Amino acid sequence: MASSSRIPLFLSLSILLAPSACTRAYLQREGRYVFTAEEILRDDCGLLPTQDALWDGELAISGDVVRLDYDWRRLRLIGAFLQDSGASGDTFALDGTESNAAITLATGECIADQIAMRLEGTTQRATVFSGVISIRVEPRVQQPWCSCQLWVTYSATQIPTTAASFP
After folding, report:
1. Nearest CA to 117 among 135, 103, 101?
2. Which residues make Cβ contacts (< 8 Å) with residue 41, sequence separation at least 6?
3. Which tens digits make up the pLDDT trace of 54-99?
4. 137 Cβ partners below 8 Å, 6+ apart?
5. CA 93 → CA 41, 68, 101, 161, distances in Å?
6. What's the confidence (pLDDT) of residue 84?
7. Could you report the per-residue pLDDT of 114-145, keeping only the tens digit for each?
8. 32, 151 in Cβ contact below 8 A?
């Protein structure tokens, strides 16, 4: 009688654990990353003060879900690893938005209905990924001159963490 009660328990555990067994392991490490612009494709917003100036961010991974807390405007980007990542490395895409935002652009002060940011990345090594960042400013109807975009290819390198020293 005791053995028959174990079978449903075993099946229940198998069903609960099965989805986590299907999650793929990714090479990309979590942590703080420094972003460097490789090539500015478009910046009619005037957002970048220098040719290679980008903002840093904190990368977190949970299964297939990827999150980046980006320093620029404190945007949180959420996305996932893409299923068709090939031999070139694991690929992921993240998106984040901010609404009713005051922003200073090359054209002056604006109130944007929405600022949308997209980051596409491909793992190069466990501590390096690269790709394209795009930022789109969608202005209010009264400020059409504030409509602009930034497109830049980038490389992101993990900032080494210092080990805690013990006395």
Report:
1. 135
2. 132, 151, 152, 153
3. 999 999 999 999 999 999 999 999 999 998 755 668 999 999 999 9
4. 45, 103, 105, 110, 112, 115, 146, 147, 148, 149
5. 19, 10, 23, 25
6. 72
7. 999 999 999 999 999 999 999 999 998 889 99
8. no
